[in-house]
Known about the structure:
Blueprint: E1 12-18, H1 26-37, E2 41-47, H2 53-63, E3 67-70, E4 84-85, H3 87-92, E5 97-101, E6 104-108, H4 111-119, H5 123-126, E7 130-134, H6 138-151, E8 155-160, H7 163-177, E9 182-186, H8 189-197, E10 201-204, E11 230-233, H9 242-249, E12 253-255, H10 258-273, H11 279-294
Parallel strand pairs: 1-2, 1-3, 4-6, 7-8, 7-10, 8-9, 10-11, 11-12
Antiparallel strand pairs: 3-5, 5-6
Helix pairs in contact: 4-6, 4-10, 10-11
Amino acid sequence: MSFYKNIDYNTKIVGIIGHPIRHSLSPMMHNLSFETQKLNYVYLPFDVPTSNLKGALKSLSLLGIRGLNVTLPHKEKILQYMDHVSEEASMVGAVNTVVNEGNQLFGYNTDINGIVETLMPFKDNLNKSTATVIGAGGAARGVIFSLIRHFKVDKINIINRTEEKSEAIKDYFKDKMHFTAIYSHELMAKENVEIYQASNLIINTTSLGLFPNIEDSPTDIAESFNSNQIVFDLIYNPIKTKFLQFAESQNATILDGLQMFVVQGAKSYELWTGNEMQYDFIYNELRQKLISTEE
């Protein structure tokens, strides 16, 4: 992009920290917005394994880095290194946005903004509903918090490859939010079919199906889905995962992860810069990029 030639002493650095991160469109989203609004910022990807997370965060203050987005697998672990944590991030137990303010690190969870805005058109359908959440990481925590706080669901199933981790999240939300109708299950395609079929909302928060492993899916049994369901995949690359394709084949209402991705990014952008991202423009640019890549 042309604005790179204008990088100077005053350029503010932000970025994304995760492992791996080569699939992320966050650099494109934020740098396009900086260029459009003529802000002297640059957004960089930082591929950091868990073993180096603490050291990487120390460098924020040392190098004057303004802030970070946080992705897999750091959203939960990074919480302990924050100087201040927002109420929602504390309730969720996960941080996806870091702001460096006067060498103090402030942790936020803007995933909640993205989840709520994506599901809000279906709020009436979700009241007193049964939801199934696949995965038990930081993103799943944001989803579960949102379903309890904003959508008043009656029951939540958590399905995960290791039931120990889903048990831990179940116990966490029982304690933190006093929500007792929450159950954990091991991820086993055939055994999970009945759980899926009895759900009004199914959300995939795992990386199964994420580029480049686009043939993967939490389930390959199309009969898991039906036309009365809303099926939401937090993955945005590819736009239509195998998981969503199976759901669509049974006439379920499907939601890809792009809206959530842009909304959470726009909130991070505002926390760093004080400016509002031009949502519609950025969303359309990213969607076109993803569609052209898939063709």
